[in-house]
Write a structure and sequence with these properties.
The complex is a heterodimer of chains A (81) and B (395). Chain A is mainly alpha-helical. Chain A has a single domain (2-80), classed as ACP-like (Non-ribosomal Peptide Synthetase Peptidyl Carrier Protein, Chain A, Orthogonal Bundle), CATH 1.10.1200. Chain A has 3 helices and no strands. By secondary structure, chain B is α+β, with helices and mostly antiparallel strands. Chain B contains 11 helices and 7 strands. In chain B, α7 (279-306) runs antiparallel to α9. The radius of gyration of chain B is 21 Å and the shape is globular. In chain B, 52% of the residues are buried. The chains are: A mainly alpha (81), B alpha+beta (395). The A-B interface holds A 15-17, 29-36, 39-40, 42-43, 46, 53, 55, 58-61 and B 136-137, 173, 177-181, 228, 230-231, 234, 311-312, 314-317, 379, 382-383, 385-388, 390.
């Protein structure tokens, strides 16, 4: 799942730096993730994983790192099963 | 200026002290507006009444007032002089960042104590040449070496920059950081020099003296806030700005309505038994004023509920509501003052009658463009691609 997230970040050019240079726990906002890009990235994730982020997950923290995104997505995908 | 030191117990209630300041501000408002000068008398009065550091927690010597109480103070002052109230609101927005994010940092905690003792006026340098009003991006960067920082900024707006005791400056975290990877630094008088680059001859809010400067500063690296600016912006600045601006605009609108009402009453007295022509519009404008008040109050209530959780404060739903508060109150305020002008007619249009609302009208036009409503709406439109409006009446 983390690889798919990484691929999306690279494909959608979510941040200006090379995603391969970031660890799973690296702060994406520090890496240049803007408020606008984070929303566009959320939409891309919703599309790719066929999920919808509930309101409670729409916080800064949810999208702060690849790890955090993985955690939120896993939670949503588990709920669905 | 030497300030008498008083214990908190010796101080009167903040609103009462602010009413005393408002009297002074009202006396000078026409001159401040005409000359486009800094409201020196009212700011000195604010310092003498010890109203600058009211938000600072009691553990640092302040009065620990919440945003609702400070909003009320802004509204009181806004009814007397829009420029003075906006200076006060902008100062308190900076203070709120210190309160929310400075408590754990020894330098910032010490600075808060100093603010209380010296009744500092804080200014803000966020706007930058090449970036404009986009708060969340910077070109300039702070450089740290051997425990000292240096920072230069082409700050195209620093409201009352020349009159401030300290300035909170946004910048990139380091020379190699992305433009959105920002820090905020407190620079005190003595740490910085300002070379004026642009003037402030404007339609309204003329007393805020929001001139542009080239800021050159250096100091102790500890003056840099430990948190990233993105956190400060989301958790304290956004809401404090929109709530306190809304409170100032509400004050301006309320005074314009008070003048319109006085005008209608005077007309009614002259013709007993008949309802004057402006009375219907007055009823309408009071309903609008009530609506504006409800927006500001709901904004504060929403903020205070969100305060209980940092996650909530940085949630998209909260940002949408705070954005809407700004857009709504700025538009409402302008409608209300325009309405007041229609009621007062020529008496309101003239600058020298008790019913004049020209200054109010010019001041309130700034509301839609200080952080442009278009920018805010386009930001909100992006957020609404994922966030849904909370339709419950009671959270």
């Amino acid at each position: 799942m983390r690889d798919r997230i990484r691929k999306l970040i690279a494909e959608r050019k979510v941040i200006a730096v090379d995603v391969d240079s970031l660890s799973d726990s690296a702060d994406l906002y520090e890496a240049g993730l803007s408020s606008f890009a984070s929303i566009q990235f959320m939409l891309a994730l919703e599309d790719a994983f066929d999920v919808e982020f509930p309101e409670r997950m729409l916080t800064r923290k949810t999208f702060a790192s690849i790890e955090a995104i993985d955690r939120s997505l896993s939670e949503l995908l588990t709920e669905r099963v | 200026m030497a300030l008498p030191s008083r214990t908190i117990e010796e101080l009167r209630a903040p609103a009462e002290r602010m009413r005393a300041v408002a009297e002074i501000a009202a006396r000078h408002s026409a001159d401040v507006d005409r000359e486009g000068r800094f409201p020196r008398e009212a700011i000195d009065a604010l310092k003498a009444e010890r109203l600058m550091a009211v938000m600072i927690p009691t553990r640092f010597g302040g009065e620990g007032l919440g945003l609702l109480e400070v909003a009320e103070l802004c509204t009181i002052l806004g009814q007397a002089c829009g420029s003075t109230a906006m200076v006060y609101a902008m100062h308190q927005i900076k203070a709120s960042s210190l309160v929310s994010h400075g408590g754990e940092s020894p330098w910032h905690a010490g600075f808060m104590r100093e603010m209380v003792a010296e009744q500092y006026l804080l200014a803000s340098a966020t706007t930058e040449g090449g970036i404009g009003g986009d708060l969340r991006n910077s070109l300039c960067a702070v450089e740290v070496k051997d425990g000292r920082f240096t920072l230069e900024k082409d700050a195209t707006v620093i409201s009352y920059g020349l009159y401030a005791d300290a300035i909170l400056v946004t910048c990139r975290r380091a020379p190699d950081a992305q433009s959105s990877d920002q820090s905020m630094v407190v620079v005190k008088q003595g740490d910085y020099s300002l070379a004026k680059t642009t003037g402030w001859d404007t339609l309204g809010m003329r007393g805020t003296c929001s001139e542009g400067f080239r800021l050159v500063s250096s100091g102790d690296a500890a003056q840099i806030f430990p948190q990233p600016f993105s956190e400060i912006a989301a958790q304290s600045m956004l809401s404090a700005s929109h709530i306190l601006w809304g409170a100032v605009w509400f004050g301006i609108a309320a005074d314009a309505v008070a003048r319109a009402q006085a005008y209608v009453r005077a007309a009614a007295r002259k013709q007993p038994g008949s309802v004057p022509p402006g009375a219907l519009r007055l009823a309408e404008v009071v309903a609008m004023l009530q609506d504006m008040k409800a927006s500001v109050v709901a904004g504060v209530v929403r903020y205070e509920a969100a305060l209980k959780s940092p996650d909530e404060l940085s949630s998209i739903g909260f940002a949408v509501e705070m954005n809407n508060l700004k857009v709504t109150t700025s538009q409402r305020g302008a409608q209300i003052v325009t309405h007041a002008m229609l009621i007062t007619g020529l008496s309101g249009y003239k600058n020298d009658t008790p019913f004049s609302v020209g200054r109010h009208l010019r001041d309130i036009t700034s509301a839609a463009i200080m952080i442009s409503n278009d920018r805010i709406l386009s930001n909100t439109s992006n957020l609404l691609l994922v966030s849904r409006f909370d339709t419950s009446l009671v959270n």
